Each structure stands twice: as C-alpha cells, then as structure tokens.
Amino acid sequence: MPELFDKHGGFRRLHSFTLATIIQIDTLRFCRRFLTFDHREGNTKFYDPKGRQYDQMTQAARSGRQNIIEGSERSATSKDTEMKLTDVARASLSELRGDYEVFILDRNQLPWSIHSPEAQAVNAISLDSAPFSDDMVHESAKHVLEQRKKYARWLDADDAVVVANAMLIIIGRAMNMLKSQIEAQGKTFEETGGFSERLMATRIEAREKDKPASPECPLCGKPMRQRKSAKGDFWGCSTFPECKGTRPI
User: Fold this and answer.
1) Does residue 162 belong to any structural domain of this protein?
2) What is the pLDDT of residues 220-242, one digit of tens each?
3) For position 55, what pLDDT does the model report?
4) What is the pLDDT of residue 61?
5) Cβ atoms within 10 A of the Cβ of 128, count?
6) Given CA atoms 25, 28, 34, 39 in this order, what sign does their dihedral have?
7) Could you give the CA distance from residue 88 to residue 86 in angstroms, rounded to a whole number?
8) In whole angstroms, what is the distance from residue 166 CA to residue 161 CA?
9) CA 96 to chain centre
10) Please, which residues have CB within 8 angstroms of residue 159's CB and are 6 or more apart in sequence?
11) Rounded-to-integer distance, Cα 104 and Cα 224, Å
12) Containing domain of residue 237, as a range?
C-alpha cells in the first residue's frame, strides 16, 4: 500500500526553482536600474511615471518563485493543488516574459533570434546539481548565487536590451522545466492517486484490522462472516444458504 503522504518540500533541489530565484533577483535589479524615474534629474530610463510596470514585473517574478515553493509544500496532501500552483508559476513567468518583450520593442529593437550566437550562448549554460546537506537555506542561497555567475556576462551588462534578452531566454527555459514538472506530477497522480483516495484506503484497511478474525465453518470448513439477528451477532457460513453452519461470537 502506498504511503499516505507524498514526499514534499524538495523545491530547493529543482533547477526550475534555481532559475526562478535568479529571475526574481534580476527582475528586481532590472527594474531598479532601468525603470526608475529620477525627479531630481528630470529624466526617465523607461516611461513608467506611476511605477505600475515596476510593480507588475516584480510581482510576476515573485509569483513565479513563490508558487513553486507553495506547490512543492502542498504536494504532501494534494497533487491536484501542486499541479495548479506549478501552472500558476509558469503563467506568472509567461506574463513577465511579455513585459521584457515589450521593453525591447519599445526601443525599436527585436528579441534575439534563437539562432543568434548570443541566444545560443545563454541557452548552452548548464546548471549544477544542488549539493545540500544540513544547512538548506544557507546552501540554497549560495547555490543560486553561484549559478547566477554563469549568466553575469549578460545580466550585469550596461545595455538594458542585452539584459532583457538574456532574461527572456532564462524565463523561457524555466517555463519549459515547469511544463515538464506538471507532466510528471500528472503521471504520478495517475499512478498513485490523490491524498483523499489513499486516506480512504488507509481507513478501510484500519477497519478491517479491527474486525475479529473469521473462523472456519464447522460444517463445510469455508470462511464465515459476521451476521446480525434479533438475538444478536453471530458467525454464519459465507456460502449461506447452501451451507447453514453457524458459530457464536
């Protein structure tokens, strides 16, 4: 019989979580660097006078990361919720990708072609496995910063369009990972069922264990079943009415 609770909380080992964390960190940095409006100098790097673009982008980036966390934690009792939250994370990153696209278009430029040397160089970067032991939060943060260094050439560029293009590719990669996660979660649900199903099966098994062992019929030797009558409970042959053997309880 499968375990009642699914394994959960392993999000820090996911490459999608590592990328989502980089995306959130660098979206915050991108917005501070390129969407701010300095009234003292009287200039703007991107026309966002009320800060709505800033808020939307940073919130979408946060939603992408946070829903991966929540979905992983909720997987213990609801595979359905895990899939929905993972899908929300993917949708949030898709929204953020749209904002980076518009930022590039607003400068009369095009996103990098997937065949361009720049795009291929970013896509070629491989992430290391997360080597965690007993200091999960500290080591997870260290791991993220180490992986970010691989993208620093583009993410720390002075040209906002270069940064935006790199973010487009990183976001697209994270979305593909989340898509694969949703498919794997669905397959697991199909094979093992949900928490409610396992809870019911566990309860039925517990009830069966509480029942007294079934004796053999004194007439035919077949298993007996507990039955009820006006005079109280008794054991009756499971083949009744063919066999009318009984035993007192």
Assistant:
1) yes
2) 988 888 888 888 888 899 888 88
3) 92
4) 97
5) 11
6) negative
7) 5
8) 9
9) 18
10) none
11) 78
12) 212-248
Amino acid at site 13:
R
Q: What are the tokens at 111?
A: 């996103």
Q: Which residue has the higher pLDDT, 147 or 49?
A: 147
Calpha distance 14→164 (Å, rounded): 24
Asked if residues 215 and 234 have their Cβ atoms less than 8 Å apart, the reply is: no
Task: Indicate whether 6 belongs to any domain.
Answer: no
Query: Distance between CA atoms of 22 and 33, rounded to whole angstroms?
Result: 16
In whole angstroms, how large is the CA radius of gyration of the chain?
Answer: 29
Q: What is the mean pLDDT of the chain?
A: 85
CB 161 within 8 A of CB 100: no
The Cα 246–Cα 224 span in angstroms is 8
**Residue 205 within a domain:** no
Mean pLDDT of 102-109: 94
Tracing tokens 């929300």 back to the chain, one arrives at 88
Rounded Cα distance between 249 and 244, Å, is: 16
